[in-house]
Structures are given as C-alpha cells and as structure tokens.
Write a structure and sequence with these properties.
The protein has 102 residues and is α+β, with helices and mostly antiparallel strands. The chain has 2 helices and 6 strands; from the N terminus they run βαββββαβ. Strands 2-5-1-6 form a 4-stranded antiparallel β-sheet, covered by helices on one side. Strands 3-4 form a two-stranded antiparallel sheet.
C-alpha cells in the first residue's frame, strides 16, 4: 500500500502585479515550490470580472503545498496584504505521496 502524509494545499488568488510578493513570501516561509496559473474570469461578491491587462488587474492563482507550520507562517506573513490588496487565500488538508518533498 502506498503511504501518504497530510500537508496543506494553499491557493492564493491575486493580481498578477502581486505575484512576486506572494512567491517571495512562499520562499521566505521555507516552502520549496509553487506554481502560477493565469485566471481569465470569475465571480465574487462584487459580481463578475474578467482579466484586464491594460489596467494591470489580470489575476493569477498561486498554488503551493507545505507542512502545516510553514503554511501558517506563510498565512501570517501575507495577512497584512490579504485585505489591503484583495488577495484570497484558501488552505486545506491534502494527502500527498512522497511527503518528504513538501
């Protein structure tokens, strides 16, 4: 049977302009990797939105997986900018194979 371990999956929805700030915080929390994917549209409490490259408000999802202590350190470091810059951070438990890599 394959052995799995519990880690935190963290997804951050941010403006493209904030991606470097977020990935720097991930690196500083000691998390070993991240992935950025573009987001073209969505809907939130303020209604529908679409990417807007001219205005610089196109969105990205930043995904990372980490042990709980590093995930909480990341959340703490991003807390001041979550409201200020309109970032959305979600975190939940996932089972991973080869947990030593995360």
């Amino acid at each position: 049977m394959i052995e799995t371990v519990i880690r935190k999956r963290i997804e951050i929805l941010a403006d493209q302009a904030q991606a470097n700030r977020v990935t720097k915080a991930i690196d500083e929390a000691g998390i070993t990797g991240w992935t950025i994917t573009p987001v073209t549209s969505g809907k939130g409490r303020d209604g529908r939105w679409r990417e807007e490259r001219v205005m610089g408000t196109d969105k990205v999802f930043i995904l990372t997986i980490a042990p709980e202590d590093k995930a909480m350190a990341l959340a703490e470091s991003l807390a001041p900018v979550l409201t200020q810059r309109g970032l959305l951070l979600t975190m939940w438990d996932v089972q991973v194979i080869r947990g030593d890599r995360f």
